[in-house]
Predict the structure.
Amino acid sequence: MGIFDYAPAPESRAIVDIKPSYELFIGGEFVPATGGAFKSVNPATGEALAEIGEASAQDVDRAVAAARRAYEEVWSRMPGTERAKYLFRIARIIQERARELAVLESIDNGKPIRETRDVDVPLVAAHFFHYAGWADKLEFAGYGPNPRALGVAAQVIPWNFPLLMLAWKIAPALACGNTVVLKPAETTPLTALLFAEICRQADLPAGVVNIVTGAGETGAALVAHPGVDKVAFTGSTAVGRQIARTVAGSDKKLTLELGGKAANIVFDDAPIDQAVEGIIDSIFFNQGQVCCAGSRLLVQESIQDELLDALRRRMGTLRLGDPLDKNTDIGAINSAEQLARITELTAAGEAEGAERWSPPCELPVNGFWFAPTIFTNVSATHRIAREEIFGPVLSVLTFRTPDEAIAKANNTPYGLSAGVWTEKGSRILSMAKRLRAGVVWANTFNKFDPTSPFGGYKESGYGREGGLHGLEAYLDV
Ligand code: NAD
């Protein structure tokens, strides 16, 4: 422990105005939902924040019709230079309202303000800026001289990065000339609804962006709607499979960004302190609720003790608590269901014989919390080595040779990301070539950039988001 204690440093929530209830955003207006209502909960306290409208199949139908009208009458006819102006305007408003967005995201999701303020919201703005730049240059993107939009895009996103996933979906779709109907996750709808206000503030033509809130049923109605030309989904592999079945046999273009079980591989020549920071970032960022989290640490056997001692020491300094406190490293788990999933899988880890360790860590009484945890003595057959836990839980395995590291890293049905820690550049390149993962980070982890493509192999999905590659998903190529 450090010599000094930290005094509380809470960010004020006065900047956000959470209304008692929210409607759907269709055709540029907020309209009542006809499917009922549900509550969004503050995961740090368990208190209900607001009533959210549940979109029925008829509401989804109205939203798709509004998107179609906007596509045919306005957006597809507008030159790229004009579309770019709207995207630049949205990006600038996001920057102007960054604090409000960051505070609201922390309250609704449970992630620390340090992350929403320094990572999520700046990246959201960066994605809109990046794709604004592409809107009038599509003919230079390598997809032919006159690339055409697809039409109406149905977009379904998860709760772990509510605003960032919205940006990954909406920014390239609009830049390419599509209109969208987006469904945020049921536990984190508030920032998407604030984004709807931003669309109005930017004078975006009515119907170009529509937001329908609801749970799985609403999402299923949206992706199955016959008026949709493109489906983009980020979420679990199970739901991704279902969506692939729904879309099969239709003309709809589909991209899927699904789960992961990434290996973070540390060789004996890696700088230990730097690797420890990378491991902390790889599994405790956003409470480990990250599809590309480095949830399997593969450490070379000869440095296992030294590395794990340093990692345990560092974990002892992590501060868990109020997500709005600027000193908080680990916030709340997003929902009671997610907490139950993490609890069940970690209990299975112990039952299967792995050794569990957490630093001394007092959990708040209310809300949903899980202490940062590592498991050692993990074997490749344990559930905690195979299944995505989606929580602050690291499974440690060892290896002796690069070949063994590759075999173990690739021994997973997923393939979203991986990390390599070593001093040797040649080893980084040879490992990156052999790892079956969409993104390989070298001597760093969880770095995102709007210019860089992101996506998976195998059960982690197909298609790429981000950069030049991300345009392809929204163009008729
Ligand atoms: P989820 O699949 O349960 O839900 C994701 C979204 O799909 C939500 O909006 C949900 O309402 C909706 N949905 C649920 N059932 C549906 C159906 N039948 N048809 C259409 N939509 C439906 O996943 P989750 O628990 O919200 O998110 C966690 C998962 O998402 C993890 O497995 C994680 O790895 C994955 N994820 C992947 C990425 C990526 O980029 N690859 C990013 C974030 C999260």
